[in-house]
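Hi L., both proteins are below.
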Amino acid sequence: MHNETHELAHEFPEYKEAIHNLKTTNTHFARLFDEYHKVTREVSRIVQDIETVSDEVAESLKKKRLALKDELFSMLKKAA
């Protein structure tokens, strides 16, 4: 689990071009994209035991990442 990649382009390779286009043309998507990757880095640091937080905080971050990913995916589907 330590080596899981949650980069958006890795999660949705079929939308790689759409991800790039939306990042450059849609400020809302770009903001969510940046937030998703920030949360993903935080979760990664927790999973790798670089940073220690409570289980509740870790779960909250994972849920936030999932919600962001769902919203980004919805935007990608609409753009495609």
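That was the first. Here is the second:
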Amino acid sequence: MSSDAPDRPVSFARLQQQLILTEVELMKLEDLRDGLQSRVEAANRLREDMQRLADQACAERDHLGHRAADLEASLRHTQEQLALGQARQAELQAAATTLQVSISQLQERNQQLAQKLAAIESSALWRWTAPLRSLGRLLGRRA
């Protein structure tokens, strides 16, 4: 039994020392846990912020998609209106050309008639019948 007694105090002292070392390790682990917990909370806040930004980006993307579709529809409408305007312009240009031809023909006809009138008025017959025309005008006024 004497051999058991000296081992026991050594064993007990050793257990005490291991217990103290274990408690120190446990305190280190608790400190590490507290540090990690604050980092996890910060990471969660960051994740939430990133989720909020992702949601905003998706909403903005959707809005921009709708806006792009509206702009494309507006562009198509504008192109259609431009095509109609160009067709109307071509019609008006053709009508203007037709009117120019008609005006030119009328001016030519007017010039021909003016030449005929000048030829008639410069003829001897016109001069000889001048008194009759004057008499007709005087009689026409009285009636």
